[in-house]
Amino acid sequence: MEKDSTKKDKPYQTVRGMHDILPKDEDYWRSIWEIGNEISEIHDFNFIETPILEAVGLFEEGIGEATDIVEKEMFSFKTKGREIVVLRPEGTAPIMRSYIQHHLGHFSSPLKVFYWGPMFRYERPQSGRYRQFHQWGFEVIGEADPFYDVQIMLVTLNFLKALGIKGLKIKINTVGCRVCRPTYRKRLVQYYRTQKRNICKDCIRRYEKNPLRLLDCTVRECKEIREGAPIILDYLCQACNSHFKEVLGLIEDNEIEYEPDPHLVRGLDYYSKTVFEVVLPKNADRALAGGGRYDYLGEVLGGRTIPAVGVSLGLERIIEYIKEKEIDPKRKKKPSVFFVVVGEEAKKKGLCLINKLRLSNIKVLESVGKQSLKNQLKIANKTKSKLSLILGQRECFEETVMIRNMKTGVQETVPTENIVEETKKRLR
Ligand code: HAM
C-alpha cells in the first residue's frame, strides 16, 4: 500500500485551503439558503444541481485551456475506469452541459435556473480565496436580449441587499464577439510587443497564449503599462456596441450604481459581450460576485449557438463581509420550548412526547443525559426558549406535564394528552 503522506503524529486536520463550516456559523449559512431560495423563487429561477465530478474536457473546452483555472487550478484525477475527471471549478459549464444533454431548451425559453454548492480551485490559499468554496449561481439560457443581462445583475443585487449588504457597485465591460474581438486582440498584441521587456513573467505567458488576460494583471508595473493599452470599446462591431449601450441604458433605468471598467476581462474564456463584477467600493479587488454573457459556450460544448448569461456569488466572501461589518444575519427564528426530563421513566416517556410536539411543528430543544433539573433549566435559559416543559416522576405518575414560562417563572400543570394544544396556546 502507498504511504499516506497526510498522516502525521497529530490528529487529522482539514486539507490545506479547505475548511469546515461549524455550527457557530449556522445562522450565516442558513440565512443565505433561506434568502437565496426566496429570491430565486420571486425572480422565477428554478433549482438545478449537477454532479461535483465532471469530465476534464468539459472545462478544458468550456473555460479555455489558456486560463489560470484550467492550466493551474483543477483538481483532476483518473478514476478506476480510467476516465479523467475533475472536481468542478465552477458551475456554468456543467449547467450548459446539462442543458444540452437533457434538451432543456424544449421546456422553457429562456431557461432560468439557480444552483449552489462547493467549487474547487487549486489556488494559493489566502483570505477570501480558498481551494474549496461555495457559490450561488443564476443562469438564463436561450436568450440574447440585454433585458436578461440586467436581470441577472438585479437578482444578484437584490440577493445581496436582502442579506443586509449596502453600497454595492457593478464594474462592467464588454469583451466583444467573434467579429470584433480578433481585431482588438491584434491591436493589443501590437501594443504589448513594444512592452515585452517591461512586463512580468506571467504576462509574457499571457502575451503568447491569451493576450486579453494581460489587462487583468495585478503587478504594479504591468498595471502602469496597461494604462496606455488600447481599449475594446474603440473596436466593437455594431451589434456589440448597441448591445452594450442597451445594457447600460437598462442599468441606468434601474438606478444601479455602476462603473465602466475597460480593463475588466474576467478569468474564464467563455465570455462574449457583457462581463461584470459586483464589488464594494473600498474592496474593489475582491468581488463578491462575477458573471457575464457566454453566447458561444453552447456551440463549444454542443455544436449550436445557445445565447446565455449568468452570475455566481462567492458565499464565503459574502459571509466574511457580513461578519466584518457585524450585519445581523437575517433569520426568522421559530420560538422554541425546552423539554426537561428528570429520571429514567420521564426520559422514556419524554422521547414520545417530544416527538409528538415536533410532529405538530413545534421546535423542541433538550439536553438529555445525566443532567439535574437545575442544570437543564440553566441550559433552557441560555437557549432563550419561551417555555420549559418539565416531566418528572410525579408528572409521569399523574400523566401530566408542567409548563414553565421562562420569562415570568409561572408554572402550570396540564394533562399530557393536551400537551400540543396547551403548548401552542402559550407560544402564540
Ligand atoms: P468567478 O468570477 O470565477 O466566476 O467566480 C465568481 C465568484 O466566486 C467570485 O466573484 C468570488 O466571489 C467567488 N470565488 C471565486 N474563486 C474563489 C476562491 N478561490 N475562494 C473563494 N471565493 C471564490 C465564475 O465562477 C463563473 N461561473 C460566473 C458565471 C456564472 N458566469 C456566468 N455565469
Describe the structure.
- This protein is of the alpha+beta class.
- It folds into two domains: 23-180 and 236-324, 2-Layer Sandwich (BirA Bifunctional Protein, domain 2), CATH 3.30.930.10; 336-427, Rossmann fold (3-Layer(aba) Sandwich), CATH 3.40.50.
- The chain has 15 helices and 16 strands.
- The chain has helices at 26-42, 56-62, 68-72, 92-101, 146-162, 181-193, 201-209, 220-226, 238-253, 297-302, 315-324, 344-359, 373-382, 393-398, 419-427, and strands at 46-47, 53-55, 75-78, 84-87, 111-120, 132-141, 169-174, 258-260, 274-279, 289-293, 308-314, 336-341, 363-366, 387-391, 400-405, 411-415.
- The strands form three sheets. Strands 1-5-6-11-10-9-7-8 form an eight-stranded mixed β-sheet. Strands 13-12-14-15-16 form a five-stranded mixed β-sheet, with helices on both faces. The protein has a three-stranded antiparallel β-sheet with strand order 2-4-3.
- A hairpin with a 5-residue loop joins strand 15 (400-405) and strand 16 (411-415).
- The longest helix has 17 residues, at 26-42.
- The radius of gyration is 28 Å and the shape is elongated.
- Bound molecules: histidyl-adenosine monophosphate.
- The site of histidyl-adenosine monophosphate (HAM) has 27 residues, from strand 6, strand 10, strand 11 and helix 11.
Briefly say what this structure is.
The protein is of the alpha+beta class.
Give a quick set of tags describing it.
16 strands, 37% helix, five-stranded mixed sheet, BirA Bifunctional Protein, domain 2, 2 domains, alpha+beta, Rossmann fold, eight-stranded mixed sheet
